[in-house]
Amino acid sequence: MLTSRQRSFFFAESTAGLRRRDVVIAYTLLRIILGINFFNHGFTRIGNIPAFVNSMAEMFQDTFLPLFLVRFTSFFVPIIELIVGFLVIFGLATQVALITGFALMAILMYGVTLLQNWDTATSQLVYCLVFFILVAGNGFNILSVDWFIQRRKPRF
What we know:
Blueprint: H1 4-11, H2 20-46, H3 49-59, H4 67-90, H5 94-114, H6 118-136, H7 145-152
Helix pairs in contact: 2-4, 2-6, 3-4, 4-5, 5-6
Subcellular location: Membrane
Main location: membrane
Membrane topology: Multi-pass membrane protein
């Protein structure tokens, strides 16, 4: 059961003319969709990380990046995608997960622009915008495990 303070926080009007309740719902849906996307990126690759690493090494073979660095980074990409996706879906350690995902996007963006793969870079910019919205709007992360945990903590 929500307290009157929590009810007013959840249902208060926003200054932009948007109802806070609607923004919370939209934030939650966007968070879940991004989480599903990231989770499935990792899930589909996790079973065959060696093939993923080899394909990345082959893709970057004509760049100045050292092969060991490409392989090392590529090994962790599916793992990070899987974990970030899972956490973001449920809203658990959301801010840390989002910042980690944003950092991963920066690394991936560097790689695709180094390869001059501008179509993929444009697609990744969309991911970055979604990460920006979710990080900046973390105050709307009410329908989440984080909020449930925070709510249950004793206040002193």
